[in-house]
Amino acid sequence: DELSDPRHRGLMLCGIYTSISIGILAISGFGAFFKWRIASGIATILAFIAFIMFLFMYESPIWLIKNNKLKQAEKVLKSLWGPGKEQQ
């Protein structure tokens, strides 16, 4: 949220709660159609995939700046915003 465009912040914040609700619905649906061991296995696999994805995410530029890693923060901001938007 700290780096999102102000026009999209509301949508992004609502998206968090919508994603949580969809996740709960999906796991409940798995429990309704599969045996509990299969449903819990699917949930475990999805959580593991999410964990692996988080390993490759960038650190927050604000955290990097607070920890005196300015070059790395600049690199992350350029990759997030794209070239030519250094002023933002």
UniProtKB/TrEMBL annotation:
Locations listed in the record: Membrane
GO molecular function terms attached to this record: transmembrane transporter activity
Alphabetical UniProt keywords: Membrane, Transmembrane, Transmembrane helix
Transmembrane segments: 12-32, 38-58
One GO cellular component term: membrane
InterPro entries recorded: MFS_sugar_transport-like, MFS_trans_sf, MFS_Trehalose_Transporter
Protein name listed in UniProt: Major facilitator superfamily (MFS) profile domain-containing protein
Organism: Diploptera punctata
